[in-house]
Amino acid sequence: MEFKEAKNKFVQTWGALGSQWGINKTMAQIHALLMVSSEAVSMEDVMEELQISRGNASMNLRALMDWGIVYKEYKAGERREFFTAEKDLDELAVKIARERSKREIKPALKILKEVSSIKASDSIEEKHFIDQTTKLYDFVLKADNVLDKITEYKDNWLTKLVVKFMK
Amino acid sequence: MEFKEAKNKFVQTWGALGSQWGINKTMAQIHALLMVSSEAVSMEDVMEELQISRGNASMNLRALMDWGIVYKEYKAGERREFFTAEKDLDELAVKIARERSKREIKPALKILKEVSSIKASDSIEEKHFIDQTTKLYDFVLKADNVLDKITEYKDNWLTKLVVKFMK
DNA sequence: TTAAACTTTCAAAAATAAATGAAAGTTTAT
DNA sequence: ATAAACTTTCATTTATTTTTGAAAGTTTAA
What we know:
2 copies of one chain form a homodimer.
Chain A: H1 3-20, H2 25-35, E1 41-42, H3 43-50, H4 54-66, E2 70-74, E3 81-85, H5 89-116, H6 124-152, H7 157-166
Antiparallel strand pairs in A: 1-3, 2-3
Helix pairs in contact in A: 1-2, 2-4, 3-4, 5-6
The structure holds a DNA duplex (30 and 30 nucleotides).
């Protein structure tokens, strides 16, 4: 396999993986492309390499920046903007984890708290509902807290996790 | 908020959450419904409660069983099948983690190994590609191994993680 | 200012994913 | 064996998500 083929395969695979995780394909592909680019890449280049429209490139680059995993760069004497991806993997994972916690877990917790707080009637059905959603709330809260703690380490959190957990 | 409203809110929320995680909405809704049901539920009931077609119910129940988080139950003297969800949250999380590892992480690792193994030319571009994909491979492999180890505990893995990590 | 060079927005179109429902398949009781 | 009771399959339809591209917006240089 030669370089161009490998690069393409990587971008495609990362894109497919993205869509299994609720991130759209193009967004994941752009991220993949930037990850393996040694130089900052212009929007024009992204469009060209992935064969996508200007609007698509613009919107997905913006979304990646909102996630904090892609940065704008300005080159001296160049008018157009260039983009680079967060390349440190610990940092990348931490940012993704924090963002998903904020966007998905926290709102879900709020709902779980709400629905588990209804006053119980005598029916087994309702008792079970309250019991199960309460357990779920506790579980998700605990998991979210662990995630928080882990990502606090920032650098080498994975290594630290290995050390703490494997021994 | 009264029971019916709370139940509905829970099912809807779980469904929305599912789609952000690559699971289809109905599948997540069925799972939610079964999770909070004290009794095993028939396909007919699922169709009725979620207002979905027979085919849809059948296919998604099957998918949930493939994931190992929903079980068929047979009631004496009843011809039709009933379904229950895995209600133990530790067990549920372990099954989901293992299945996603098998379906998504393992295949991704295979590709990462492949593309990071191309022979390097002298260009900075290619060197960077190999370097970055190799790092990614190592990182994902390490993460997958930690996941493996954690889920080996099965019961109370989360509690154990809290204990090990918070101290 | 003006205009060139660039980016963003968003309504419409295209692509993709999910749901339907009727026919085919299966199981069980008689 | 037959038929009733139930489940599964899958071609077609429907709904959702993503992409396009042209117009509007912004920035910079002169």
